[in-house]
What does this fold into?
Amino acid sequence: MKPQVLIDAIVRQTTVLIARLSTAGGVRSPLGHVANEVFVGLVTELENEGVSKKVIADMFGMALRSYRQKVQRLGESATTRGVTLWTAVQTFLAERGTATRGELLTRFQYDEEASIRGILNDLVESGLILRSGRGDETRYRVPTAEELRDLGAFVEDRSQESYAALVWVQVYREGPLSMERLAQLVPLPQATLDATIDALVADARIRRDLRDGVEVFTAEHVLIPVGETAGWEAAIVDHHRAVLNAIAAKVTTGTRTSTPADEVGGTTLTFDLWPGHPREQEVRSLLRATRALVLPLWEEVTEYNRMHPGKETYQVNYYCGQHVLEEDEGV
It folds into this structure.
C-alpha cells in the first residue's frame, strides 16, 4: 500500500477527533490556528528527519521561495525568541488585553510587518481577537467571556491544577525542558506558566536544575489518577502521544507483521454484543480489569525504582483504551 493512502486515512481520523474536541459540550473552540500549527509541526519533524528544505517544499507542492516565506511568517519570532510569531502576538494581546496596530508593530519591530498584519487578520477571522478602528489606530483586543459565549465559542474557568497537570505531563515526557521549549509546548501566558511551574516545583512533582548554565525542568514520574477531573486534558494528550508513538515505532522498524513475542505494537479488537449476551459483562469490564492488573504493577515498579535507582534505564510505554459504540451512534 502506498504511504499516501495511509497518511490520508490517518488525517481523516485526526480531523474527526479535533472536530469532536472543538464542539464538546455543545460549544465551539476557535480552530483558525490549527492549519498553521500542523504546517509548522510537520516542517520541524521533517527537518529533524534530515529532509532538505527543497524536498520539503516539493512535498507540500510549493515553490521553494513561497515555502521559505511561509516558514518565516509562521516560524520563531525575531523579537520574542523561543516561540512562534503567532504565539508571541497572541500572548502579548492576552497579557495586555488590548493594543493598537501601531503598538503591535512597535512591539514586534524585528519581525516583518506583513507577517504581523497577516497574523492579526488570522486571529480576527478565527474569533480569537476583536478589531475596531482604522489604520495604525486600529485596536485589537481579547474578547470578554460574555462575547465569546455570544459567539458560541468555548469558555471555561480552567483551574490552576488543570494547567499543572498539562505542564507535568510535558515535562515528564519531553524533559529535560528549558523554559523556552516548555513555553512552545504549553503556550500559556508567561505569568501563568511561571506560577504553574513554581507550584509543581513546590510539591516536588517536577525538579528545577541548571545544566550548562541553562535552567531546565525534569520529572521522574507522572500520574493522573482515575477519577481526577482537573487533569483530563493532560490525560488525553498523554494517551494520544502513547498511541502515536507506538504506531510510529512499529512503522519505523520496517516490520509489517505482528508476532506473539512483540514488545512494540498494539492490538485492536471489536466485540459484537447484545443485551443478554453470555459474555457481555466480561467484555465491557475489560478496561476496568486491565487497570486493576496494570496499576498495581506500575506502583510496585515506581516504588522499587525510588528505593533502588538504576544507572542505565529505558522506558516501556503501555496504553489501553475502550469505546462502547451503541447501535445508534455514528463512527
The chain has three domains: 3-150, 157-257, 268-331. Residues 153-157 have pLDDT under 50 and may be disordered. Residues 286-307 form the longest helix (22 residues). The two ends are 24 Å apart (CA to CA).
